[in-house]
Amino acid sequence: MAHYKGAASEGGRAQILMKKRQKEQEEIENRKRKIEEELRIGSIQNKFATHYDAVEQQLKSNTIGLVTLDEMKAKQEDVIKRREKQLAKKDAEARLIEKRKEDKKKKERMKIAHLSFDPNEDEEDEEDDTDEEEEEEEEEVSPPADKKRRRLGKNPDVDTSFLPDRDREEEENKLREQLREEWVQKQEKLKNEEIEVTYSYWDGSGHRRQVRMKKGNSIQQFLQKCLEGLRKEFNDLKTVTVDQLMYIKEDLIIPHHYTFYDFIVTKARGKSGPLFSFDVHDDVRLINDASIEKDESHAGKVCLRSWYERNKHIFPASRWEPYDPEKRWDSYTVSDKNAIKITVK
């Protein structure tokens, strides 16, 4: 560090300015650190966005004003197909990157540590020198002839994977499309699988029934099938339409346009149990270990909207609330027969 030579007052002033400058630099470094931490937190939160949240957000942004149910279904199918294509493309790109890394590692293992030039080139140069000397001697006797220039070829040991290659890009695009089609076929197969859904028609007391549905069926289709069976037993349902029915699963009111597949794929959770399980067994939170989450869930309730409007201030309807895919239920809360609140994490 250079010392200031001059009056004592000037030297003191120089030291004060240097300290001030150091303090400003420290403040700038602290601000940079805070900004980097905020950006890191934001990127981590974005990584854990679920497939269905993105679909729901895109559907909301594309839907303006009142639309019919058929239009809503068409838009939803279009958004889901586009989202599936994006996911398949990302999956294919990740596999290709992994495959490239493995190929590169294999090449590095096989490659001997040497320069990218051919080691036999020096010997060839020496032979060329002797040939040139012989040719010079011959030139003294014979007329001059055209010398053939030796062409330098490509070294096969050099890694050229970073260079653009049309054939390789076409092969990668074919692989991406093939993986996307496989993924779509797998999802279609999953949607066509049948499940047994246990539900309870709720009019103040429960009437438990079972119905077989496909995973790709919507809640509206499920309610239509329930209504066809319940009309034979309940006279007050003979003039009721599907739009007048509600489906409540784990204390959440499920909109009609959702499908069983949506909850199964995203492993959605409700207030009092998982939304992706539709078969019903004994409540494991009241039997065995209440701290361990099981796949068993409560029977979903099917009820009239008019009944809900009349009784929404009374338990159990007072616990019900509309389903929000952006809301997270990290723990389940249920009450046993002795009114003891149990929390399952």
From TrEMBL:
Q: Where is this region: Disordered?
A: 1-30, 98-173
Q: Where is the FAM50A/XAP5 C-terminal domain?
A: 193-333
Q: Which PANTHER family match?
A: PROTEIN FAM50A, XAP-5 PROTEIN-RELATED
What is this organism's lineage? Eukaryota, Metazoa, Spiralia, Lophotrochozoa, Mollusca
Q: Which InterPro entries match?
A: FAM50A/XAP5_C, XAP5
Q: Compositionally biased, Acidic residues: which spans?
A: 119-141
Comp. bias intervals (Basic and acidic residues): 164-173
Q: Which GO terms describe its cellular component?
A: nucleus
Name of the protein: FAM50A/XAP5 C-terminal domain-containing protein
Gene Ontology BP terms: chromatin organization
User: Could you tell me which species this protein originates from?
Assistant: Pinctada imbricata
